[in-house]
């Protein structure tokens, strides 16, 4: 599953876009200095997200939408089309 697919699944599971969750996380005080554990616990308690989907959100909460380009355009199952993740929801994602 690609990184973007994880974020799209988070939207399906929560009804919130990844950006909305990032904003809520920042309102709670989570930022680039926050360890994964507290964020994962919050995401599990509030939204029922498991570790895989939670870790995808931890990345964008703590590091932003940029991902390493090593999987971009690769042939593996984890490949992404871009090194910048789309956080504003599946319905508004450019083709």
Automatic annotation (TrEMBL):
<dbReference type="InterPro" id="IPR025629">
    <property type="entry name" value="DUF4287"/>
</dbReference>
<dbReference type="Pfam" id="PF14117">
    <property type="entry name" value="DUF4287"/>
</dbReference>
<feature type="region of interest" description="Disordered">
    <location>
        <begin position="65"/>
        <end position="95"/>
    </location>
</feature>
<protein>
    <submittedName>
        <fullName>DUF4287 domain-containing protein</fullName>
    </submittedName>
</protein>
